[in-house]
Specification:
Elements (H helix, E strand, L loop, with lengths): L1 E4 L1 E4 L12 E4 L5 H9 L11 H4 L1 E6 L4 E9 L7 E9 H7 L4 H6 L17 E4 L6 H11 L7 H12 L4 E4 L5 H12 L12 E2 L12 E3 L9 E4 L13 H9 L4 H15 L8 H20 L5 H10 L4 H18 L2 H13 L1 H14 L4 H12 L5 H21 L2 H12 L8 H15 L3 H14 L1 H8 L2 H6 L2 H9 L4 H22 L8 H11 L7 H17 L6 H13 L3 H8 L8 H12 L5 H10 L5 H14 L7 H13 L7 H14 L2 H15 L5 H15 L3 H16 L3 H11 L6 H17 L4 H21 L12 H10 L7
Parallel strand pairs: 8-10, 8-11, 9-10
Antiparallel strand pairs: 1-7, 2-3, 2-6, 4-5, 4-9, 5-6
Helix pairs in contact: 5-7, 6-8, 8-10, 9-10, 11-12, 12-13, 12-14, 12-15, 13-14, 13-15, 15-16, 16-17, 16-18, 17-19, 18-19, 18-20, 19-20, 22-23, 23-24, 23-25, 24-25, 24-26, 26-28, 28-30, 30-31, 31-33, 32-33, 33-34, 33-35, 35-37, 36-37
Length: 833
């Protein structure tokens, strides 16, 4: 069985005038352009010799697309000295298969391949035998040839290899002019490389003196110069130490004088090359291989190595087989010792990808559960933080059980509680709730004699496991050892709610409140506690289902059974919260049972004021009135209380007006005097006629009962000054005052006259008093009819006098007072006393 290789034949050197580049023949699969391209990639010329075989030179040159050309040139015609060039085109895959065995390629050129009709018909492909791989014996023979069967010459070989791998490349002078011997030297260098990288050790056994090349090893005459590292074979001078590459430095550390051992180590590196990314330069790849091989040796030997190097190896290019398990086991030990999350993620990813590795490492994890279960738990937890997996969830549960068992059995109180808290806080998706539940109950017996453990267990159970919490709270022995405020709150129901909240959280506070509500103990229900309870009930604070149910149960019990047993501050806070959050339905349900309380109006006023419901407060009060929870007097009292809360701010004018209307509509309603005067003051400032008219009428009604004239005068003064701005109200006052004054006795009027004296604001009112006083004096003790008769008599007398002395045009009658008085005196007996 053979392998076919496309071939190209050239018959002249490259010259600018030749647009075919001397092309003579091509395989059928190739084009002229292919021939020109591949010729341009080589630098090779025949050697001096008397026969075509003696003039042969060989070269391996890289081309595009992971393809190579193996070239041979020779002089067929001694007279013309015209060189012939034969090329074989190979892919990397074939060269890797050859693994450094270049002899099948060399053998192709032992017979010339000159075509009979150049460029008129395709040349047949070359055939090489298959299999063609390099045997261990052949490889060892090539290396022995390189070191001349002398291990002492290995340093020379390594020097040559290092220069060849260096970016500058290697130029060899003075080597015997035997092309096949030079090929064997290159093969010897290839023997020191991993098989998969040997194709990259390109070469030219006789570089063209005028054409440069990227081949790594070139043989040339001394007339050829370049920037390469040079080796003079005749003078036995070789590249200096600075030409050494990291790969060759690693080979030197491996070299112990035993060729077979060195080749075995290189074979190990060949296995590494299979999983090292091949997208880097040759030197970079070899450096990575050398570093990995050195790391492998240290890991296998059990030496301390860099954890970062282990991580990088397992992340980028994990080793295979048993070595992979050694690496992973090494990193696993580190992860357990240091809680290294990154290491755990790397290992578990490998375990997920490799069932056999997973089985082996889980045995290691299982063994670690006996001595360091917390480390195993952290390790598995790191894996689950990446993605959920049923297998790892089961393993996490096992680790949690082992850790909790040790913590509860052998750990101190703090350790046990911390472990329980850690597991309880895990996401629900980790399915550890039953582990937490059983572990809490497992610790219950120990907690009966350990106050700190009892405290930790109780708080944790309340937060994470309400079912377990109920069992703990039913345990009298455990409850009796609960310390400090927590014990008082849950046992005696008289702890400090704020301190309980701050120390143990809202869930614990709710648990205490639920117990207090069942026995209607109001002590724990402070305003702070009510606010927390309401936040949970309203859903503004997210808690576990048990805490939410506790809040709902407490509120529902107040709706059904009444909340009257709460302290006034708590009741006011509760009503405030319902109003603030526009839960009016609940507000009315809570207030109905409270309507008969003496402090009902005070509670409503405080709640309405604190609720911030300014815009619809009057509507709310109207609803309370409509359902019968407030009387008209209660509404007025509520208005007054709300106005006091607001310091009679002018923004509450609508409520003041509503209060005035209520007073106007119900004369029987009582309103404190100070409220009336406050309303009157606001009416004067805001020029509100309605309030002024209603209030002044109610004030004047109150003034009718004032007996102290000085007090009455002062009140009248204030009233007149406050209503001076409105003529209608002043007219209303004057109408009342006239009626009031007419009902007073003459002596009272005389006193009022004195009391009103000296105050200009009251002059109009005093005029009324003075008018009435004068009228009363005029009548004296007579009745009005007698006074009328007396007026009639006086009129008759005056009329008679007038008629008697009525002057006429004809005569004038004179009047002499003394005569008239004498006449009257003479008739005195005719008069009654």
């Amino acid at each position: 069985m053979t392998i076919s290789l496309d071939r190209i034949v050239y018959g002249s050197p490259r010259v600018p005038e030749d647009n075919t580049d001397g092309l003579m023949a091509l395989s059928e699969n190739l084009s002229t352009q292919d021939g020109i391209l591949w010729r341009s990639l080589t630098s090779l010329q025949p050697m001096e010799g008397d026969t075509p075989a003696a003039t042969r030179a060989f070269g391996l040159f890289p081309g595009p697309g992971e393809r190579f050309v193996f070239a041979c040139t020779y002089i067929q015609d001694r007279e013309s000295r015209q060189p012939i060039y034969e090329f074989l085109l190979l892919g990397r895959e074939l060269l890797v298969t050859l693994a450094g065995n270049l002899q099948p390629l060399v053998a192709v050129f032992r017979e010339p391949a000159l075509p009979d009709n150049p460029l008129t018909s395709p040349i047949e492909p070359a055939q090489i035998p298959n299999p063609i791989s390099w045997t261990a014996e052949e490889r060892r023979a090539s290396l022995d040839s390189l070191i001349e069967n002398d291990p002492a010459q290995m340093q020379r070989a390594l020097s040559l290899l290092s220069a060849a791998l260096h970016e500058q490349g290697l130029l060899i002078y003075g080597y015997p002019p035997d092309a096949e011997a030079r090929v064997r030297l290159v093969q010897g260098l290839m023997a020191l490389l991993p098989a998969s990288l040997r194709p990259d050790l390109t070469f030219s056994t006789n570089r063209h003196e005028n054409i440069a090349t990227h081949a790594r090893v070139v043989f040339a005459e001394r007339s050829v110069t370049s920037g390469r590292w040079t080796a003079d074979w005749e003078a036995q001078t070789f590249p200096p130490q600075e030409a050494q590459t990291p790969y060759v430095q690693h080979l030197q550390t491996l070299w112990t004088g035993d060729v077979d051992t060195l080749l075995e180590q290189i074979d190990q590196m060949d296995a590494i090359a299979n999983y090292i990314p091949a997208d880097k330069s040759l030197q970079t790849t070899l450096t990575a291989i050398a570093e990995r091989h050195a790391l492998n040796n240290r890991v296998i030997a059990g030496e301390e190595v860099s954890i970062d190097a282990i991580k990088a190896a397992l992340k980028d290019a994990p080793p295979q087989g048993e070595l992979k398990q050694i690496y992973a086991s090494y990193l696993l030990r580190h992860a357990l010792e240091t809680r290294d999350t990154d290491a755990a993620v790397i290992i578990t990813r490998l375990m997920d990808d490799d069932p056999s590795l997973d089985e082996a490492l889980y045995e290691q994890l299982n063994a670690a559960l006996e001595t360091q279960p917390d480390a195993v738990y952290a390790f598995i937890r790191a894996r689950l933080s990446v993605a959920l997996d049923e297998k790892w969830l089961a393993r996490l549960k096992a680790a949690a059980l082992a850790s909790l068992h040790i913590a509860i059995t052998d750990g101190d109180s703090e350790t046990a509680v911390n472990w329980l808290r850690l597991v309880a806080r895990e996401p629900a998706a980790y399915q550890l709730s039953d582990v937490v539940h059983n572990s809490i109950l497992a610790a219950q017996e120990r907690a009966r004699t350990d106050p700190e453990l009892a405290r930790g267990l109780m708080v944790l159970a309340i937060r994470r496991d309400p079912e377990a919490a109920e069992k703990l709270m039913a345990d009298d022995a455990l409850m009796s050892v609960l310390p400090n405020n927590l014990g008082r709150s849950l046992r005696e129901l008289d702890g400090d709610p704020l301190a309980l909240l701050q120390a143990h959280g809202i869930e614990t506070l709710l648990a205490a409140l639920a117990r207090a509500a069942r026995v209607q103990n109001p002590t724990m229900f402070t305003p702070v506690a009510l606010e927390q309870l309401w936040a949970v009930y309203g859903g503004t604070q997210t808690l576990n289902a048990g805490s939410r149910q506790a809040a709902e149960h407490i509120i529902n019990s107040w709706i059904s059974d009444g909340a009257g047993w709460l302290n006034p501050d708590a009741l006011e806070t509760l009503l405030t919260l319902t109003l603030r959050d526009h839960r009016d339905d609940l507000f009315h349900q809570l207030t109905r049972p409270l309507a008969q309380r003496e402090d009902f109006v005070s509670l409503l006023a405080g709640a309405l004021h604190r609720s911030g419901r300014t815009n619809d407060m009057l509507a709310l009060i109207a609803q309370i009135l409509a359902v019968g929870d407030l009387s008209q007097q209660g509404v007025v009292d509520l208005y007054i209380a709300l106005l006091d809360h607001a310091d009679w701010d002018r923004s509450t004018l609508p409520m003041m007006a509503q209060l005035a209307r209520a007073v106007q509509q119900s004369p029987s309603i009582t309103v404190p005097d100070d409220v009336l005067w406050q309303l009157l003051t606001v009416a004067a400032e805001t020029k509100d006629e309605l309030i002024a008219r209603v209030v002044s009428r109610r004030i004047t009604a109150e003034l009718e009962n004032v007996e102290d004239d000085a007090v009455l005068a002062e009140d009248l003064r204030q009233l007149v000054e406050q209503i001076q701005w409105n003529s209608h109200v002043r007219g209303q006052l004057m109408t009342w005052w006239r009626g009031f004054a007419r009902a007073q006795s003459l002596s009272r009027l005389q006193k009022l006259d004195k009391a009103l004296d000296g105050n200009r604001a009251l002059e109009e009112l005093r005029t009324v008093v003075q008018s009435l006083t004068a009228f009363r004096k005029m009548l004296g003790k007579r009745g009005l009819s007698r006074f009328a008769e007396d007026i009639s008599v006086a009129f008759s007398v005056l009329q008679a006098l007038a008629e008697s002395y009525d002057p006429t045009p004809k005569r004038t009658i004179g009047f002499e007072p003394a005569t008239i008085r004498a006449e009257l005196d003479a008739r005195m007996e005719e008069l009654s006393p």
